[in-house]
Design brief:
The protein has one domain: SMI1/KNR4-like (3-Layer(aba) Sandwich). 27% of the residues lie in helices and 27% in strands.
Length: 78
């Protein structure tokens, strides 16, 4: 599984298009779910469109992975 996630980050060129993020999955709706990795000891979880993958288009969906895991299955308010 870890190898697949690393490969997906390389295939989607995350380092080039969204270098402050590390993708961990997909929303199944055209958005990447990713950690923001340049936040020491925080790693907030964001969703970012695969098309136009830029930090400005990223939306935080959880303060950290624990909050994200507790929100799975819940509706996201915008």
């Amino acid at each position: 599984m870890t190898e697949e996630i690393i490969k997906a980050n390389k295939d989607y060129e995350i380092n080039e298009y969204a270098p402050d993020f590390f993708g961990i999955g997909s929303s199944s709706g055209g958005e990447m779910i990713a950690f923001k990795i340049n936040e020491p000891n925080k790693w907030s979880v964001y969703r970012i469109p695969f098309v136009g993958m830029e930090e400005e288009s990223a939306i935080m969906i959880a303060e950290n992975f624990e909050a994200f895991s507790k929100s799975i299955g819940q509706e996201i308010e915008e």
